[in-house]
What does this fold into?
Amino acid sequence: MSTLHTVNKSSFTNRALESCILICRSSDGILLLEDGVFSALKSAPNATALEALNQQGIHIYALLNDVKARALEYKIAAHIQLISYDEFVSLTVNFNRVQSWY
Amino acid sequence: MIVPVMIFSINVQSPPSSQASYSAYQFCRALLRQGHNLHRVFFYQDGIYNATNLAAPPQDELDLYSEWQKLSKEHSVELVVCIAAALKRGLLNQEESIRYNKAGHNLAEGFTLGGLGQLIEAAAVSDRLITFGN
It folds into this structure.
């Protein structure tokens, strides 16, 4: 059973992503949205942990709309995939369930 | 690849002033665009503020209140508001305003008051229940 974790808080100001990373398993994925996209920055507090998860095969996504709205397009870590709302819906179909962290 | 058609329900726990409510709305639009079914949007906790008909947002801001109503009309989506969360925040329909002897009622057209059972039912009959909170 796979879980898509969505995180809408920035790791600069909130520990939701840290909690999420602690229980994230190998078949899971993480989607950063709203202020959560700040966690996709190379300089974000959990950047190393996210990259380590990615190397274990956990895909990390960020919602393109929210990345663009904050002008972060060219500043996010290379391993993070930018996705649209349509792709967000597809992810929720492809994973067995969704856990929202906020 | 064939994409299976799924039944979704959405749980909105954030007020319209937070981005999470707009995210929920955009997610609803996207899933309907892809041909999935939207069984119910359940407004819980501060999410109930999405259902007031007394808000008058400024012209240069999105009128999310009307957008929910349009969504419901266009796709026959049930918009259910938690009755306990609504009453304690001053959101009433006509029936409740009479029951509690209040001066008026402000539940917008297209929304209905319901119990938490309707959130549980939504979880039971839907393939996916997605929560948007703040």
